[in-house]
Write a structure and sequence with these properties.
Radius of gyration: 20 Å
Mean pLDDT: 86
Number of helices: 4
Largest sheet: 6 strands, antiparallel
Strand order of the largest sheet: 8-7-17-16-13-14
Shape: elongated
């Protein structure tokens, strides 16, 4: 599922101005597929009994291919990192640190060549998640509380008339995200169940008023 979502997003990313550049040669989606295979190939047992996979990936390409990606390099790197994280969620893998993907050129490589160095690198994992709304918006979440509601001072502002002015709040506490209903009129539901306060798990569906959103934890 993670790679399928990545492929759909990537199709939108390279359409239009960049479409002609990707009719031949190395395709960005091939990199995403290889990253997933590298994660699978280098998985190992973590100290807490979980399955740990690499989180640092150096992708070596030909100078020609890397130049073709230059018009949207940063967006591509972000999408590749998201593809790795989504694949890990789908397979139940853990990381020992933040996911990092780098694209570098090898002057001796030929067009279409690709080499990936995958490593497990320990490091601090800062709280990171997002809400994906039905209209396509993606709202990043971190340590700071995020209020959901109709008023413009909310971090996540909705025009839904069934949503209260300050409806609910996403908080990070005790190493997990949770949602807290703020005394809303129509209540807050997580996976179809009305809640007052609920710890969130990756993939949970939240209903605020008539607005549905999906919680994803990175």
């Amino acid at each position: 599922m993670g790679l399928q979502r990545f492929e759909r997003r990537l199709e939108r990313l390279v359409e239009g101005a960049f479409s002609k550049a990707f009719r031949t040669g190395l395709q960005p989606v091939e990199i995403g597929r290889r990253l997933a295979r590298e994660a699978d190939a280098h998985r190992t047992l973590g100290v807490r009994g979980s399955t740990v996979v690499p989180n640092h990936f150096t992708v070596t390409l030909s100078a020609d291919d890397l130049d073709r990606f230059s018009g949207f390099h940063d967006a591509l790197v972000q999408e590749l990192g998201d593809a790795v994280r989504e694949h890990a969620r789908d397979e139940g893998y853990d990381f020992e640190g933040p996911v990092d993907v780098s694209l570098v050129a090898d002057p001796s490589a030929r067009r279409g060549d690709m080499r990936i160095d995958a490593q497990i690198v320990e490091g601090p994992i800062t709280p990171s998640g997002r809400l994906v709304l039905d209209d396509g918006r993606q709202i990043a979440l971190g340590e700071a509380p995020a209020v959901i509601g109709r008023l413009p001072d909310c971090a996540i502002t909705l025009s839904d008339p069934q949503t209260s002015r300050h409806h609910a709040e996403i908080r990070y506490d005790d190493h997990h995200f949770c949602i807290v209903d703020l005394g809303s009129t129509n209540g807050t539901l997580v996976n179809g169940v009305q809640v007052r306060e609920q710890a969130l798990k990756d993939g949970d569906t939240i209903l605020v008023g008539a607005t549905s959103m999906r919680f994803e934890e990175s």
